[in-house]
Amino acid sequence: MKKYGLPLLILLMSILYIFFIPAEPMEVKLLFKLIPMWLMIGYACLQLPSRKTRTHYLILAGLFFCMLGDGLLIWFVIGLTAFLIGHLFYMTGFFSQWRFSIIRLITIVPIGAYSFFMGKELITALELSGKDTLIIPVLAYITVISFMLWSAIMTANPWAIAGSVLFVISDSILSWNMFISDVPNSGVLIMSTYYSAQFLIARSLSSFGGSNRRSTIRHFPVN
After folding, report:
1. Is 92 exposed, middle or buried (0-12, 13-18, 19+ CB in 10 A)?
2. In the chain, what is the straight-line distance between the N-terminal and C-terminal CA atoms, in Å?
3. Domain residues of the chain, as ranges?
4. CA pair distance 163, 169, nearest whole angstrom
């Protein structure tokens, strides 16, 4: 069940929501939107090792708040805030698994460039549409999710990195489609990348041990 059964169920429920559940009634649509996330949180719990660390609990908290964001996104700023809190938990958890590499470190440059581009485009679109009150929340979210992506890269954990990249792609499509211009098949693209992102982040839990600092100390020889 842990290896194949639950992931298959998550996949089937995600496909059901994305392709088959109608937009109305909204309550039914929302229920089926949340089911894959509930299953993923259960899957994440199954990934936990017997010796759990702060990192595991932080990432679980991130999954929980992102699930709340799913349900609350119909009130945009409230949902955005829940997602922002989720990313802060992810970022804190990932930074506790920091593994220094100059190549990984300098990825902050392209991430920063992309964030600047998205921020500039969104500010222009929000000003033109008279939604100036959303500028600060949107910029705050871009900043946090960018650092979340960088923190995942600094773990060198392929599951966390892939999941975080997909999360940025999903949110980029969503924000571009919502504020700048229509993206063809946006609903399918947003939710397929989003569910994939959350599943990969949940999967990353089994690859994380204790903090990198404690791990380094244990491997120094004692004279």
Report:
1. middle
2. 46
3. 53-218
4. 10
Q: Which amino acid is at 4?
A: Y
Please report which residue ranges of 54-185 form alpha helices under DSSP H.
54-72, 76-95, 102-105, 108-128, 135-153, 158-175
Query: How many whole angstroms separate alpha carbon 93 and alpha carbon 97?
Result: 7
Separation between Cα atoms, residue 197 and residue 201, nearest integer Å: 6
Q: Does the bond joining 110 to the residue before it have cis omega, within 30 degrees of 0? A: no
pLDDT in tens, the chain (223 residues): 556 899 999 999 999 999 999 999 999 999 999 999 999 999 999 999 888 999 999 999 999 999 999 999 999 999 999 999 999 999 999 999 999 999 999 999 999 999 999 999 999 999 999 999 999 999 999 999 999 999 999 999 999 999 999 999 999 999 999 999 999 999 999 999 999 999 999 999 999 975 554 444 343 343 3
CB 83 within 8 A of CB 66: yes
CA-to-CA distance for 122 and 68, rounded, in angstroms? 24
What pTM value is reported for the model? 0.91
Joined tokens for residue 141: 């979210």
Helix (H, G, I), strand (E, B) or coil at 3: coil
Residue given tokens 């989720």 in the structure block: 86
Q: How buried is residue 108: exposed, middle or buried, by Cβ count under 10 Å (0-12/13-18/19+)?
A: middle
DSSP code of residue 63: H
